[in-house]
Amino acid sequence: MARELQRVVAVVGGGLAGIAAAVRLAAAGDRPVVIETRRKLGGRATSFVDPRSGAVLDNCQHVLMGCCTNLLDLYARLGVADKIEWHRAIHWANPPAEPDRMRPGLLPAPGHYTGSFLRMRFLSMAEKAAIARAMWRLLRIGLHGRTAWRGRVFMEFLEETRQPPRAIERFWSPVVVSACNLPVERVAADCAMQVFQEGFLGSRRAGAMGLAAVPLVELYDPAERLIAETGGEIRTGLSAKSLAYDGARITGVVTDEGFVSASAVVSAVPPDRLDKLVSAPLRGADNRLERLSAIEFSPILGVHLFFEQRVLDLPHLVLTGRDTQWMFNKGIDPEGRQHLHAVISGADDWMALAEDAIVERVMADLHACVPRSIGLAPVAFRAVKEKRATFAALPGVERLRPSAEPGTLGLRGGGVRNLFLAGDWCDTGWPATMEGAVRSGYAAASAFLGAGGPVPDLPVSRFSRLLGLR
User: Is the pLDDT of residue 3 over 80?
Assistant: First the structure.
């Protein structure tokens, strides 16, 4: 039930972090006003109308896992959980043979992948033994012990556990770069460790892969109704220009169409965008805002390919040992063409390429991993570059990731009491993912409300806890 005296909370940014914060605030009876520059919700995890074909295409394929408890909670609140298709198996290319399949068996975590992992042919037995040795080490390090690795890159862990080059190239690298958007040579060790501990070792349910069965933008349609039920609103096509600060508190948001007065503000935009919204006095009053410009970014490239022939029967494929990490099967489009979507994370080397050159490289990777595609060419394609797709999870980045509420940033305190921060770049304990974005939005809303918090993680299995994952 709504409060007798509702509070207006301006939420700057209509990506997943902003949507999550607004939905949680509306559920508590407050009035969120979402201010979004674009004319649609979703931020980077959204869709667009391709001007060449008129088709609705996702910016990039986004994947959720069974361990994404907060994202799943948001989808349930929005009533769109049934629009997610779940896959228990992950398919890995093993040309010229059929792809290998990794899926949970009968054993409890952390041994649930043992059977299918041993049957995978794209790795030798020596490479599998090395990977198992490293996984055992990750168990023993534990969820809290990985903080001791801060300041180091994940490659150091792989070297310490004597991982063969081929195991790094074919197993560790595609998982890490896909989850963290940085290669193993650059990514913070604790960030990469979290991926394997949470996604592979803690729970049988954690590694299930979820893919949206509809364009991403359709997942957010119910948000407007939920927010409007308490008198809130979503104002797309409206740009925030600055956060109004009177020397003691935030009074609202200055936009290109006027002033939005608010009891509090949730900033749910990337750090470089927030840096442009704050004044010098505000920056000086809130230590969370001091080093926004120090956060670096990493790019992602998505490539839509359309074929007159059927190229891929599987729902997805890890292109082992290739620069293109994933190929997703988006089904048959209205014109009867198979729609595939390639994803290249950590795509720094691709950003300067023209679209034709990008497609040529992607097709070379596809030909190498899917022999039936040799001799075929797409009849249409569309490359989507996200040059500043995610924050770069470099060693030491945790010192730059601010809390949702005022008071903490590393060892520094202080802050403006009615300014709350959200975004996957904030201090969520997760890489730059949809789950991290939603966690941050929930944390910001909970900090304002003084109640609640992120949805709990999946429980770690008893055997994983006994082996040290706690």
Answer: no
